[in-house]
Design brief:
162 residues, alpha+beta, Alpha-Beta Plaits, 4-stranded antiparallel beta sheet, 3 helices, 14% strand
């Protein structure tokens, strides 16, 4: 009883298709076969068992599977890859946002610390300036208050006797 077996076989060159052609030519029960490099498809007609054909072609070292399974597997793989890509993208986005928040928090802490340090330095500088200027102002006011009002009398500085 003759049947048709369709395989998906990864073939990248004429050497690959030649290897598949050699094993199928030697296989018992094969009436005919067609190798389509463009579609990566091998069709075998004959009194053969599908599993035996698949195993024989796989012995060439070429990745082989039944055509229908391959089409479904590609669809499933593509769908799985899309889901993986979306999941990875979402994870990456979340990681990026987390990093941004972390950087903002570090910046806020550094900025806050810097502002606090600047306030402390400014406060220290101001208190030092106040201490320096306050006595001079107080002395000037005290001297002005203690001095007799000048009414047009000229005074000469006192001589210091040693």
């Amino acid at each position: 009883m003759s049947q048709t077996v369709v395989l998906s076989v990864r073939m990248s060159c004429e050497g690959c298709s030649g290897a598949v052609k050699r094993v199928l030519s030697k296989m018992e029960g094969v009436e005919s076969f067609d190798i389509d490099m463009k579609e990566q498809k091998v069709t075998v007609i004959g009194n053969v068992e599908p599993e035996v054909v698949l195993q024989t072609v796989a012995k060439t070292g070429k990745k082989s599977s039944f055509w229908e399974e391959e089409v479904e597997a590609v669809k499933t793989d593509t769908k799985a890859e899309e889901v993986e890509a979306k999941t990875a993208e979402k994870t990456e986005t979340k990681a990026t946002k987390a990093e941004e928040v972390e950087v903002e928090a570090e910046t806020a802490v550094k900025t806050g610390t810097k502002v606090e340090e600047e306030i402390e330095v400014e406060a220290e500088t101001t208190s030092v300036e106040i201490e320096k200027t306050k006595p001079a102002e107080v002395e000037a006011k005290e001297a002005a208050a203690a001095a007799p009002p000048s009414v047009g009398i000229e005074t000469k500085p006192a001589e210091v006797v040693a």
